């Protein structure tokens, strides 16, 4: 009897301490606040803060003004921040495999069921000292946008703004890649430093790029991946109830990708209304482009990650 009472008392004590301890985590986004690739993460923060009231509080520091985009991965690794919304393309220096995530466009429900999430989470545990909480935008492709017209898929003589997402394919088709964070795209185009840029189908209006964009090249290629990461020490210090709030919000966040079908359709219309012309060279050219785009990207991943690259490809199934 005594033991039972004691156990009950301990349970109550533990419970009240847990309730009394609201953990605050600092978060940043590699994309500007309120823009397309931060928006859903910001909704995720609101959800965690409301579902986890009294348990967890995410303190959103903001976008690239807080931490430069290409340093966000390292900031999570070293716990300069506890959490981040960032694309793997921005931390390929720490994890070369991250360049392969864009080559997997399967829904996250499938990636979680077939071991992809687990494999990629392990890579994050080991190389980025972080937990791979969620991946967003699997169904949003990239494009090459141009300010100069081309009459076939050939970037010879063109300088194209890239990140690791587009570097190999731009080079494969003869272009000169110039790496910049998103915040420098507008000036690069305006000053003629770049003749075009890689970017997803969505989001070009956020930073006013429609003013300097004349063409969008077809076909769409690859799959956007923007991940929610949490520093592993921060993750391990959470209790079960806190982790449950995060895991449930992560699945909810991944589910928001469903909204993107309509968003993409609207975005294409909005680009057309802004007089951005599509450059479409027909199905044969599109197929040749896509075959090459995937091939050069996988080869590049294999070269830099010979151990893990082939497994990523097998999981991606292409
Ligand atoms: O173009 C980029 O900056 C880039 O690599 C990216 C990746 C994911 C979403 C948006 C942009």
The helix/strand series, from N terminus to C terminus, equals HEHEHEHHEEEHEHEEEHHHEHH
Number of strands: 11
Q: Can you list the strand order of the major beta sheet? A: 7-6-8-5-9-11
Largest sheet: 6 strands, mixed
Number of helices: 12
Could you report the average pLDDT, rounded to the nearest whole number? Answer: 95
Oligomer: single chain
Cofactors and ligands present?
Answer: benzoyl-formic acid
How does the helix and strand content classify structurally? Answer: alpha/beta
Q: What percentage of amino acids are in beta strands? A: 15-25%
Helix content: 40-55%
Distance between the termini: 62 Å
Rg on CA atoms, Å:
21 Å
Low-confidence stretches: none
Which geometry do the CA atoms define?
Answer: globular
Notes on the structure:
With 318 residues, this protein is an alpha/beta fold. Helix content is 44%, strand content 19%. It is built from 12 helices and 11 strands. The strands form 2 sheets. A 6-stranded mixed β-sheet has the order 7-6-8-5-9-11. The radius of gyration is 21 Å and the shape is globular. The relative contact order is 0.16. Benzoyl-formic acid (173) binds next to β8.
């Amino acid at each position: 009897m005594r033991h039972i009472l004691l156990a009950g008392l301990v349970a109550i004590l533990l419970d009240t301490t847990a309730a009394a301890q609201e953990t605050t985590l600092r978060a940043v986004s590699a994309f500007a606040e309120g823009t397309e690739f931060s928006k859903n993460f910001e909704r995720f923060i609101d959800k965690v803060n409301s579902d986890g009231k009294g348990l967890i509080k995410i303190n959103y520091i903001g976008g690239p003004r807080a931490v430069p985009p290409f340093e966000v991965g390292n900031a999570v690794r070293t716990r300069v921040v506890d959490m981040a919304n960032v694309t793997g393309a921005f931390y390929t220096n720490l994890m070369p495999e991250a360049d392969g995530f864009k080559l997997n466009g399967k829904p996250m429900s499938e990636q979680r069921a077939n071991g992809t999430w687990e494999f990629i989470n392990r890579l994050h545990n080991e190389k980025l000292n972080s937990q791979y909480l969620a991946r967003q935008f699997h169904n949003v492709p990239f494009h090459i946008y141009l300010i100069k017209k081309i009459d076939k898929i050939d970037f010879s003589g063109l300088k194209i703004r890239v990140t690791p997402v587009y570097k190999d394919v731009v080079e494969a088709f003869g272009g000169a890649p110039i790496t910049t964070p998103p915040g420098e795209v507008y000036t690069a185009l305006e000053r003629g430093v770049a003749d075009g840029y890689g970017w997803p189908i969505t989001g070009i209006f956020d930073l006013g790029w429609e003013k300097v964009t004349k063409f969008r090249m077809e076909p769409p290629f690859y799959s956007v991946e923007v991940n929610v990461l949490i520093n592993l020490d921060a993750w391990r210090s959470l209790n079960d109830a806190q982790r449950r709030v995060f895991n449930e919000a992560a699945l909810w966040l991944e589910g928001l990708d469903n909204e993107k079908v309509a968003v993409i359709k609207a975005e294409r219309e909005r680009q057309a209304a802004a007089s951005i012309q599509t450059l479409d060279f027909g199905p044969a050219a599109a197929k040749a482009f896509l075959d090459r785009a995937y091939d050069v990207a996988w080869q590049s991943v294999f070269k830099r990650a010979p151990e893990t690259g082939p497994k990523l490809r097998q999981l991606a199934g292409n």
